[in-house]
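Moderator note: this is an archived Q&A kept for reference. The question asked for a predicted structure of one protein chain; the sequence and the answer are reproduced below.
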Amino acid sequence: MPSFDVVSEVDMTEVKNSVMQARKELQSRYDFKGLEWGIEEENKTVIVSSSEEFKVDAIREILFNKFSKRGISLKNIEVGKTERSSMGRGRQVLTMKQGLESLVAKQLCKEVRGTGLKVQAQQEGGKIRVSGKNRDDLQKVISYLKERDDLEVGLTYENFRD
């Protein structure tokens, strides 16, 4: 029976590549010459810092631009507060969300079942497994979920099997 998985994950390799591209761009930009700034990648977070607090937002926007160009959904990034140290340095933590929360997964399962297509949707940990007899129905489910812009997370689809 054909099936696929609906997941909400961020590819950390793409995050690393985006961070490297943002660093290259910041090194060549005139408005960042002579300014102390940094982008550090740790586990599932990216820490943006600068010697001037208002430049943190500019660095974050450059990084978000690189993320979107590499196919990373900005809905899966949790932006922390801009913190200010006693030295006047600005710092912000961006956390990558991995996996679907159970409430969101339940809601999506309910909506997939309510489409009227002959498919089954079940929650398995941080993902949803959708299966059905007809491959076309599964592709309709994927297009239905892609049309949903009001979701609070970005969805990806993997393990499409016959």
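Archived answer notes: The chain has a mean pLDDT of 89.
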